[in-house]
Amino acid sequence: MPKLTKYQRRITWSTGIGFILERMDAMFMSLALASIIITLHISKAQGGLLPAITVIGSIFGGIGFGALADRYGRVKTLCWTIIIYAIGTAGMGLTNSFWMLCLFRIIIGVGNSGEYGIAITMLSEAFSRKYLGRLSAAAGVCGQVGSIVASLLSAFILQRFGWHVLFFIGIIPVVLAWFIRFHLPESKEFTENRDAIEKDPNRDFSHWTELFATPAECFLTIRIMIMFMIHIAGYNGLISWLPSIAQERMHISVAGSSLWMIATIIGMSLGIMCFGIVQDHLGSRLAYGIWLLAAAASVFLLIIAQNKLEFLIGGGIVGFCSDGMYSGYGTIVSKLYPTEIRATANNTIMSIAKSVGSFSTVLIGFLMDHFSLMAVILFLSGIYLVSFVIMLSIKELKHENKAPITTTENAEKVAQ
Fold this sequence. Notes:
Largest sheet: none
Order of helices and strands: HHHHHHHHHHHHHHHHHHH
Number of helices: 19
Helix content: over 70%
Distance between the termini: 36 Å
Number of strands: 0
CATH architecture of the largest domain: Up-down Bundle
CATH superfamily of the largest domain: MFS general substrate transporter like domains
């Protein structure tokens, strides 16, 4: 990769910090939940509503901010979203009302919803396509760093100062991200496209419905959305439930289950980096084919493991295979959709997929209550195989490094 320009460095730092913020928020909420339930004297069902209700803000924010980013600019929109996110995070640290917490979680969902899609779009417009897989992977690893940092901060702060202080600490990287993005210019690709639209009376800014405007576009959008939905379902299932499985099946302590989590996150980080390299050199079809089949097979290691060491190693391998594909979705969306609708496509697909996929924790909980661990493993393995079949049906991936296929003429060519 050639030496980065000043603009490319700022884009890279901006994206990395944004991904750190995204994962830190999810981990803060997860790790602080037990303390919030005790402090506010609410039920576990009410407590479970707090992370779930974020979905409401994520859906509307994701679709809305994607469209705004395509119309008014990626940088300007991200500056708006990060201010909204800061307001929600500060509110979490100030209130002791359950209903106000719900409101602030929705606000955080709105503010956080634009981060992944718009940031990946900015990367795709600042760098050559042949490096996009590795750059997206590096941003994805930053997200895992955010998970580790959030875990360490929570372990230190929660018992000593309480969950209010934890959320106030979460504002610090928000301020840093805003300063990095402030005065950051828009990409040349975006500004040229915007100017062309404004000068041409026959053209108008895109709307999210254009993702479904033709049968080819609709079919492509839905398939990518389902693939990412499956990825989120698998990720949430592993992160949410396998620490509990480790404690029950291997009689691992809470501290030991935290070690398992760190091993899994390290595996995920290595998987993301390796996936990005393979995606750039061998293409998305082969990269996804390898990782999806490996993910479907690797989850059985959690059943095969006979001792704590094997379970620890198995967790790292499962993390490597199951989450390695995370950054690749933004890469293929950025390659397959044209500039005028790229941020809308990224945000709409990612926000809806994340929102629906997050409910996998409920389904896995049901399987654990009524069936065996094997049922959970079969479910996880099965959905990865479904994603593999869907991926094979996306013929557009054969042309991912050429012109975006979602212009009408290209869509018709690929559909033939």
